[in-house]
Amino acid sequence: MSNNLRFEVVHEAFKKHAVDVVPPSARPSEFFGELVFDREKMFKYLDRKTYDALIDCIDNGKQMDRQIADKVAAGMKTWALEHGVTHCCHWFQPLTETTAQKHDSFMEYDWKGGMIEEFEGKSLFQQEPDASSFPSGGIRATFEARGYTAWDPTSPVFIYDDCLCIPTIFISYTGEALDYKAPLKKSIKVVSDAALAICKMFDKRVRKIQCNLGWEQEYFLVDDGLYAARPDLIACGRTLLGHASAKNQQMDDHYFGQIPTRVQAFMKDLEIEGHRLGIPMKTRHNEVAPNQFECAPIFGECNLANDQNMLLMGLMKQVARRHGFRVLLHEKPFEGINGSGKHNNWSLSTDTGVILLAPGKDPMSNLQFITFFVNSLVAVKRHGSLLKASIASATNAYRLGANEAPPAIISAFLGKTMTDVLRQLLNVPNDTDIVIAGKHAYNTGLVEIPEIFLDNTDRNRTSPFAFTGNRFEFRAVGSKANCAGAMTVLNAAMAEQLIDFKAAVDAEMAKGTPMKEAFMATLKPLIAEIIDTVCFDGNGYAKAWEEEARRRGLDVERCVPKMFLENTKPESVALYEKLGIFTAAELQARNEVKWETYSKLVQIEARTLGDLAINHIIPAATNYQSTLLRNVTMLKSLFPNEWETLAAPEIAIIRKISGYNAEIKEKVDVMVAKRKVANKIADDYEHAMAYYEIAELLTGIRKPIDKLEEIVDDTLWPMPKYRELLWIR
Ligand code: ADP
Ligand code: MG
Q: Which of 66, 232, 291, 495 has CA atoms 20 to 30 A from the CA of 107?
């Protein structure tokens, strides 16, 4: 059966390709952003006063009055109608990890017997989706069922199909964040302000700091027909069973290999859609595992870049279907081959064009670089557990620590160059200059950074947090996650660190120490704190690293529900409250959501696997066993003297099948019994801990199933196998 399974599930509705909308001769620069109400459109569709007020609102957070809001909405409506738009929606990011939207038509009675298209400022600014259907933890019970969405003017409105989409934050009536965007924006503000205070000491002209995010999105594609025949992919987004394919990634022939034609057509379509929506898609390539791919845009402002990632993930799913594919964003869709992550390239930069995590041209700009570099590492060291909690999920747990992804220990990779620079800094006088090698007249008493540094940073795939020349790359983020979770923690940790650092420098300078010496004096103990703790350039996959990390006092916890406990520890609450990012109540509520989500995901997997084992696998195996038994019976009647020898191979398989069937049944029964117990637990954390134990049972059930796959007749196997799922033809 598995050989001729090809469902025709590509419906006509999916066949409208972006490549058909955009003329083949058009260049991306010509249609880039055509579906975004960007500054160019604002200028065209708004009068000067309205335009200025909106720009002031975007750039400086100025409040906008009702009349201006109506004018902004009117301009947007004119633009939208020109594109055949009929609806608008508030587009937001609830704690479900996907985006949500409720479409409202522009249509209104004109009270003269007809209809008109209407879109007013109030619809642009605020909507009231029923918050009670979105995960909100304790907030729903303790406060108000209702929540509202409010426009985030810093992220431009865009058109998707026939709908004008308005990026919004989602908060409860009492102001608690029910989404990812609201806290992300707060964290960006605090880290930017904290960085600005330091940058101004180096250059008075700096007026604004931008927090940057450049995400790299990994994903798998599978044939739509084969996907439809895998209940586990449909329900869980990953395979719960499947014997390894004889050929998978061992030949290293997929990474950066030639992109299959069908996949290239998908990528092209996706890029055109992305470009029209203003997503600066830049790279595309095959990843390590078969059927695994990656795309990445040019980095940009963190909040906008994150919106674009959320938008792209939705886009990928839709475009994939037009090409007869399903996209798998799960972190570990297939056992035994690489999983998918979402590398978050993170940096801060000034409005004067300086990237603060890149070496500069002169000693002072290099001191500024070292300051931001070291403080980032201190932030990661002090809040490593929080960072880990931010990327932890039931799905990412299958990838982390699985010997092909960052381990479940947060450490930072600096590379030899920067490790040497830091070690030298520990031992030089405080007035030493930090220079780019070869760019200075004399050669003594200096700390040198080699010039061809950017392209020269060595790579370490085993590190969750790697320095790559002008940014840090947080590689532990899950492929399916909203980047905002991780970025909020990183920004918060960095903000706190920069504020403390500045206070220490100020105190030093108050004693009369010159600026450079004050910075160096403050940096040295920080370098000493990180260099032999969080900084680790070795092999993160090695068993010895776990022991070493434990010795260094790093967090080595692997249990996901336990990781979330970090979020509500007193020091974490203090951090977030001090910076105004989360209240204690919000943190508690969000943890409840995390535990609940964790339990539900494991529950779905456990149910699906139980169903597959009992209703698909055991019957298929028994079916094959019956065939063998019939054969043995016939051998016995035809060859009364030799049958035992002749039937020996079949009898061995018959016995094996009975053995595996019994093992599967017994293990599924244990799992079902555990689920019954777990489901009676009311406390969210305890409930999740019970499901953590259930998650551990899944591999045990899978083993005998995968053994059966090796011996059961291929034509009787009820589902497509890895070798079919993993090779796109
Ligand atoms: P690699 O696979 O080598 O890490 P990619 O080109 O796939 O590199 O992705 C790197 C990502 O990092 C891109 O999105 C890129 O725009 C982004 N990036 C580059 N420089 C910075 C920076 N200073 N800050 C944030 N992101 C950056
Ligand atoms: Mg990268």
A: 66
